[in-house]
User: Fold Copper binding protein, plastocyanin/azurin family from Halostagnicola kamekurae.
Amino acid sequence: MARKRTVSRRTALKVTGTAAATALVAGCSGGGDNGGDGNGDDGDSGSEEYEISPDQEITLIADSGGWVGSAPDAIADVENPTLALQSGEEYNIGWSEANDELEHNLEIRNDSGEVVKDLETDLVAQPDERIELTFEPSEETTVYRCDPHSAMEGSIVLQ
Assistant:
């Protein structure tokens, strides 16, 4: 007659714990770098500075995952592009479409996160026309951002 073999709860927990620990160590010690450069950047984000001349309108597409550059061509399809602007010159920045149904706005902020000189637009879900701000970049205008969506933030640097 065949004997029925059972596994105790304690033994089952030991085996499960050992298997989980082995999988964890194996996952952490993979030798490959998956072809990446290790910085977590997919190469299409705003870490590169894009020089924009004052006569070029800056147009962004609103997406709760990040502003996506539309114009000029240098920032097309770049998420949260870093805008390199000339101090003392006047620039026009705006957005005219959204990839979602959420409300967005555009603000120019300083390093402390405060809106600079009332440079902000109203919250709008799907604008009928381009919503824009005109401003002169300075030491205090360091960020453009959508207030309700923290992922929608890009840097402004002076040339």
